Amino acid sequence: MANIHQFDVVVVGAGGAGLMAGLYASRGAKTAVISKLYPTRSHTGAAQGGISAALGNYEEDKPEWHTYDTIKGSDYLGDQDAIEFMCNEAIEAVIELEHMGLPFDRTPEGKISQRPFGGHTNNETGKPVRRAAHAADRTGHMILQTLYQQCLKNKVHFFDEYQVLDFLIVNGKAAGVVAVELATGELHTFHAKAVIFATGGHGRIFEVTSNAYAYTGDGAAILLRRGIPLEDMEFFQFHPTGIYKLGILITEGVRGEGGVLINGKGERFMPKYAPTVKDLASRDVVSRAIYTEIREGRGVNGRNYVYLDVRPESVNKYAALDGRVNPDGSPYAITGEQILQKLPDIIDFCRVYLGVDPVTQMMPIQPTAHYTMGGIPTNKYGEVVIDDKNTIFPGLYAAGECACVSIHGANRLGTNSLLDLVVFGKHAGLKAAEYAQTADFEELPSVPDADARAALEALRAGSGKENAFDIANEMKKVMFDDIGIYRNEKGMREAVEKIRELMERYKHVKVTDTGKIFNTELLNAWELGNMLEIAEVVGECALNRQESRGGHSREDFPKRDDQNWLKHTLAWQKDGRIEIGYKPVVITKYQPKERVY
Amino acid sequence: MDVTLKIFRYNPEKDKTFHYETYVIENAHETDRVLDLLEHVKGYNDGTLSFRRSCAHGVCGSDAMRINGRNHLACKTLVRDVGDKITVEPILGLKVVKDLIVDMEPFFDNYKKVLPWFINDSPLPEDGRERLQSPEQRARFDDATKCILCAACTTSCPSYWASDDYLGPAAFVAAHRFVFDSRDEAASERLQIVSETSGLARCHTIFNCTMACPRDIQITKAIGELKMATITGKIE
Q1: Residue A185 — left, alpha, or beta (φ > 0 → left; ψ -120 to 50 → alpha)?
Q2: How many whole angstroms separate alpha carbon A227 and alpha carbon A384?
Q3: What distance in Å separates residue A225's CA from the closest CA in chain B?
């Protein structure tokens, strides 16, 4: 049969997690990395502010503090054993990136420079700590470039611009994937002992998002259809500072450097909501604060936005009021030139998209759909676990944003996503290679690409009365409005009904392009199907969880309820319905308590 | 406002040669990205229109194209920057595969030729920590680290149009990023590669690359520094 490739390990996705997995797996097994984009186009490259590790390069810091901050940030839904594992590995992980050549910014002594970020604190004083290692405001770009370069150096085998459509299961084990080569439209079967999904998130289901067009939840949707559950899908992070209307990310690093949020009355409002760390509270807290200001009529000009102010005079004024000092004890102050140097991309985005110069003007911002906390359930070695007893699915791995370890629980701390993908990408790669050394290839089904082919044919054969863009836009709007920052029973019920209606209409979606070469219309339509299925799961899980925790804020259940809801959600797609189960949260050293910043 | 969008079209499965199609987009806004307009055409005028895109804010490098005759990223070019009559064509010098999509393989092949990865085989610091580098040393190669491999520079260069084997500006930027990194040990190998016949000598300081770069990298300056290093043997 044509187009069958055999590799011990196949990695799907070539962002930070996929590249790290590919790099490590290829050292012990014949490995291929398959991506629908050229690897350097992956969304890791959009990450800005930093990667966290308790390096202590400016001031005292410890992995234990990082661990506690992450657990607290997760609103106690993160698994504490996995969080402790990640935070302990963080220092080595960041040092390894430096050894790979990553151009981190430097301290005066030549060490890796670090900046403060939301929710990262000195646990003794409660004050922000400089934990985010950074390369200007393009840390993710540098991680992506560096890992891609290392993969080239190590001759990792890439299949660029191949869209994976299906995951093959034989005898209850991983057997490979089926992909379409974009340039030819040909289907390819990748026969493998182990498959690692590193396909990123699904922020494109929301109207205002910082996420790339590619973020359509492909990996999670493929596995969902193959009977794998998804974990904690109700938890999605809205980043407080997206460019008004466009959603383009303005890094939390702006506030790390001293920027403050200002409402329509010209008031700095965060001290009301987070008296200790103020503008550097964790993201769910800040996003809700912004929404509350807007709802109570204190948006700018009565509109749905507030200002982010990093003008030197404002930064210096509020730093003095807060008593912020430099590591040597001198008062903290910043110049326009230093802002340009530390935040060049942010300045550029604002000038291009807003016509605003952040050194002299305030930036109009609103919360933007940013990060998928839930996803494919894994343990801390990247092995996919498929039930409440954490039963391992042989040969299947996941890492990065598509996975739910769970490190981020109900709310991720800034900079922990880059750390997540480096640490767990590595371990998934190591584990998959180790597995492949002893496992045998499962025999492929007689027509391995039959289901993938049928799925594409069904789209081509649609009766053609529905416009894919209309369906997508209606989905995005209802998800952002009703399953966004604030949620309630009525809105969510209507949203889920709307999603189901859109799923019906999707069956009649119009695909006019009958060609094979770069049929992006067909593939975009296929991605839309993934987004609708994911949106349904997000909606069902959000409706089901009757409490408020982290990024899941319910107006009808405003309090966290540890008695009933200190547990992970698992969701299966069965007979066209979503079935919900649970699994316990791993709690080791830190008993849940009220979360105050 | 209405925007008239003239787009280069070529479908290899149907067309013998390329042609242009013109679309009028009503109620466009001056802050719309050209990418938004292309998406609109794809959604509501012609679903077969094909182009690459991902991040939509100028950091992934997918959507380099010629807009009114100059190379830009479609996601970083607003209607107010280019006016209400917009012509969109694929970047030059790479084979057109379909509509605005070109074959990027030769571009990435050239990138790979300059050993675009960190090389330092000396022992790691004994304390298990980072290699040290002063802020000044770090700043020396900062500009080149911004490159997103979009190919806007290389495909704006007449020398590249004239010869397929010319390494091109993007490959030089990649070389510069490592040659001037105080931690890297393979500068001489890279300088050797970029000084071969398909290399630096074919740069005629036309500055198209610098004008085209959506990341504002001073590419011609970087090439000049590489040229100087190959002549003097000194990396300063």
Answers
A1: left
A2: 12
A3: 25
CA dihedral A354, A357, A362, A367 (to 10 degrees): 40
pTM here?
0.97
Cβ atoms of residues A561 and A546 within 8 Å: yes
Yes or no, beta carbons of A105 and B135 under 8 Å apart: yes
Q: Which of B47, B145, B148 has its CB closest to that of A521?
A: B47
Position B31 scores a pLDDT of 94
**Tens of pLDDT, residues A360-371:** 999 999 999 999
pLDDT tens-digit series, residues A17-66: 999 999 999 999 999 999 999 999 999 999 999 999 999 999 999 999 99
pLDDT on residue B197: 86
Non-local CB neighbours of A330 within 8 Å, separated by 6+ positions: none
Strand partners, A306: A365
Strand B96-98 versus strand A230-231 pairing type: unpaired
CA angle A153, A416, A90 (to 5 degrees): 60
Nearest 5°: phi and psi at A237? Answer: -95, 130
Q: Tell me: the pLDDT tens digits for B53-74?
A: 999 999 999 999 999 999 999 9
3-state secondary structure (DSSP) of residue A129: strand
A520-544 vs A218-225: helix crossing angle, rounded to 10 = 70
DSSP A283-301: HHHHHHHHHHHIIIIISGG
The Cα–Cα gap between A88 and A382 comes to: 17
Q: Residue B207: which region, alpha, beta or left (left: phi > 0; alpha: psi -120 to 50)?
A: left
Contact A99/B130, CB-based, under 8 Å? yes
Predicted local distance difference test score (pLDDT) of residue B236:
82
Residue A17, pLDDT score: 98
Structure tokens at B195: 């000084």
Query: What digits encode the pLDDT tens for the residues B159-211?
Result: 999 998 899 999 999 999 999 999 999 999 999 999 998 999 999 999 999 99
Cα of B166 to nearest chain A Cα, Å: 21
Token digits of residue A439: 């496992």
A131 is catalytic: no
pLDDT tens track for A529-584: 999 999 999 999 999 999 999 999 999 999 999 999 999 999 999 998 999 999 99
| B116, B149, B184: residue with CB nearest A152 | B116
Asked if residue A306 lies in contact with residue A220, where contact means CB atoms within 8 angstroms, the answer is no
Nearest CA distance, B232 vs chain A (angstrom): 26
C-alpha torsion A205→A234→A165→A403, nearest 10 = 120
Is residue A61 within 8 A of residue A122, CB to CB? The reply is yes
Per DSSP, B156 falls in state G
Structure tokens at B122: 């000396």
Alpha-carbon gap, residue A238 to A76, rounded angstroms = 18
Alpha-carbon distance of A404 to B152, in angstroms, equals: 38
How many whole angstroms from its chain centre is CA A262?
27
Q: Is B54 on the interface with A (CB under 8 A)?
A: yes
Q: What is the pLDDT of residue B198?
A: 92
- CA pair distance A552, A201, nearest whole angstrom: 17
Q: What strands lie across the sheet with B19-25, from one edge to the other?
A: B19-25, B3-9, B85-89, B64-67, B70-73
Separation CA B94–CA B105 (nearest Å)? 9
Give Cα A181 to chain centroid, integer Å: 26
Mark residue A470 as left, alpha or beta (left: phi above 0; alpha: psi -120 to 50; beta: remaining). alpha
Q: Count the Cβ atoms, other than its own, within 10 Å of residue A198.
A: 34
Query: Residue A281 carries which side chain, given as an amino acid letter?
Result: A
